[in-house]
Amino acid sequence: MKKLICIVLVVFGCVALNFRGKKYIKEHPNTDPKVQHAILHHYFFRGMTIPEVQASWGDPDSRYFIDDLTEIWHYKAYTLYFKNFELDSYVSHKY
After folding, report:
1. Contacts with 21 (C-beta within 8 Å, 6 or more apart), sequence order
2. Which CATH code for domain 2-92?
3. In sequence order, what E strands does the chain have?
4. What is the pLDDT of residues 51-95, one digit of tens each?
5. Could you state, in order of their start, the residue ranges of all structural domains in the chain?
6. Cβ atoms within 10 Å, residue 71
């Protein structure tokens, strides 16, 4: 039963992210095709904006503001560094 609940939660989470990504692209039809692909396949790259990363990966586990133009997002697998509202760099926590 616990395994079934975990599977349902994982699937629901993926569906929710996919819905968020599709909604973002629908609302921003002029988004670069490379960014659209990243959003729909749940990855990110340097230069993506904060809303684009959020559409791809969802809300971070935690978020810190260094100053008006610098933000740090923490996910379980990554820490992302934004400067001027764009992804500047990231660190993987995968082993």
Report:
1. 39, 40, 42, 55, 56
2. 3.30.1450
3. 62-67, 70-74, 78-83, 86-92
4. 999 999 999 999 999 999 999 999 999 999 999 999 999 999 976
5. 2-92
6. 20
